[in-house]
């Protein structure tokens, strides 16, 4: 329904249509042509600074305005060509849209004075950006350029690639060359030069993409033309027999071009069609809900039957203003049919025919204000509206360009300098020494103590895990009715162990195997905490080295060099992790086997005596049982041995793993780079791909923005000279 398209118009069949407005937000009240046109041009977005002309000018004289128009249209064209859209520069432009077969191509032909491709179905299969510059005193010319702004995935190509295609001097040659250019755009993998000599039959035989986001650009210099720039977009289709995805593709393409706030949307609609069912208006309404920058152009008025009074009255009301829900209203144009086109009439002759049509047919001849009728009025008024809009937005565009340029320059300056590779060996060697020095200082605690604190915390965890394996000795006789807790050794258990190891000993003699058995039952639990601690320390060490490798002060800027260093680090890691693991296993095996020994007799004796005194409350040793003596031996030995084991494991990790790894790493890295050929070292200094890509991206953006800024400055100088010449 039209209420979802054009600020809600309800269209009765036989009466003059009335305007309905949505409750919120309320669009501006419709402005009739009689209210609007005496004041000139109303703003595209409701500004008072832009107005539609009250009457069509007889011609655009070579004056201050005309020269200014040339400068502004040329500026807008250059800003677009330089990729302004990729920086979200809202460059004012006209966009022609319409349903398929809405007469849009005929309007474009009449606006430009050149022939455009005409085939059955959709004839415009990619955007066509056209810049018209009136060139008084110069011969007619047309330059066609292929602008590849998008890659095969529809992503922005930075910078856009412009390919010169041809320069023409005869308007009659444009149509075939546009067909060739369109075929080149639709064949992105082919060389555009291959399309320059193709005939119409050759072009029909080609298999190409159905549509493309990339653009054909025309720069037309015409002594009889009007200063104008616009983009002609593919006709909107409702279905496609071979590929249903093309329907949303075209709609998205159209919406992508018209969503910018400074794009004036020109919707062509056959006057024989139901205005409520125009998909082009629906798309325009989605981006311009208040109708502030949408202009309707009714085509094919000659096909309206004189008896269709309701349709004729509807269009008269729309053109005169009261029924128009668009701020800038509608125009009506009468284009030549195919038979007339073949006659090859001049632009003046075609304009005269159109003028005679509106002067002789009802209801057009009875409309008081004829400024809404005819192609000449439409083009001249659009030119003035567009030129005003461009001039008004130049300060905003320039300010945006300067801000973007400053931002990209700052990002570029923050990138690390590109390395010089004339002498790669000393350059890499210095970084290796610096890397190893920081690594050593971190592990030794002379640079950063966080890593040592982290290691010490893990060692405390290891110490606690080993301490928790201490035998829980229960000296009292065990009550069979109570379960023995896990890890407990009761006096009854000890007696059983002593009995199990008894052979032909003399009375009062306890076999040492009983003591050894009880000790080793608990020592065997030390291996898992030891392995867990080693793995945690290795993981932390590797994380430290990885972070230092990635640091831009060392190798972070160079992906290949990072990979080279990581390879050496991995080689050394495997070596020293294996060697350290072997040593740790030896330490464990020494504790978990015979002999059960300690030279620390003072600590051992003290712990043994303390335990027995606690049990017997300092009674004479002659009263100590054999079981309790064994339990005291187990307790005392464990106190000495588990602290010894903890010390040896930690010292081995620090000495065999940390110290030897770091010391060997520097020697091995320097050896490896010393043996590498210069070409290999130069390759290692290839900049990291992400940094290189960012550098390239920023370089291109800075280059583009600089060119855009220079073009804006050039315009200001040209405009200043023009105004000064006029003052003189």
TrEMBL record:
It comes from the Eukaryota. The keyword Nucleotide-binding applies. SUPFAM superfamilies: P-loop containing nucleoside triphosphate hydrolases. One of its GO terms (molecular function) is microtubule binding. Residues 88-395 form the Dynamin-type G domain. The keyword Ubl conjugation does not apply. One of its GO terms (cellular component) is microtubule. Residues 48-57 have a biased composition (Basic and acidic residues). Residues 20-30 have a biased composition (Pro residues). Residues 9-57 are annotated as: Disordered. Residues 627-720 form the GED domain. Pfam families: Dynamin_M, Dynamin_N, GED. Keywords: GTP-binding, Hydrolase, Nucleotide-binding. InterPro entries: Dynamin, Dynamin_GTPase, Dynamin_N, Dynamin_stalk, G_DYNAMIN_dom, GED, GED_dom, P-loop_NTPase. Gene3D superfamilies: Dynamin, middle domain, P-loop containing nucleotide triphosphate hydrolases. This is P-loop containing nucleoside triphosphate hydrolase protein. It comes from Ephemerocybe angulata.
